[in-house]
Design goal:
Low-confidence stretches: none
Largest sheet: none
Oligomer: single chain
Length: 145
Amino acid sequence: MSTAPTHKTPNHRPGTAELLVQLASELGNLLSRHVALAKLELGETARRTGLGVAQIAACAPLVLVGYAFLNAAAALALARWLPLAAAVALVGLLNVVVGSVGVALAARSFRRPELADSVMELERTVHALAPAPPSNGHSALEHRS
C-alpha cells in the first residue's frame, strides 16, 4: 500500500515527511508479508506432523501385538539354554537397551521447524535495507567527525 504524492506537478519531488510516511507504510507491508509467509510455513509443518501422528496411532496397536509375540518366541527359544526366567529377563533387558537408544534418536528429531523461506526473505530484506559500505573503507560516521 503506497502513498501517492499529493501534488500532481511533473517536477514534484516528495519531501522528507512524505518519504518517511511512504517508508513506514512499505516497511509495515513488508513485515506483514514476512509474518504471512511464516504462518504458511508453520501451518504446513503442523499439517504434516498431524498426519504422521495419525498414521502412527493407527498402526501402533498392530506393531505392539506383533512385538509381544516375537518377544515371547525369543524368550521360549532362549529357554533351551537358559532357565525360562533368565531368558525372559534377557529379552526384556535387550528391549530396554534398544528402546532407550531409539527414544534418544527420536528425541533428537524434535527440533524447531526451519522456516527456510522466511529466513531467506528476511535476510534479503536486511541486506537490501543495510547501508552500502563507503568505497574508501571508512565508515560514514568517521566522516562526520
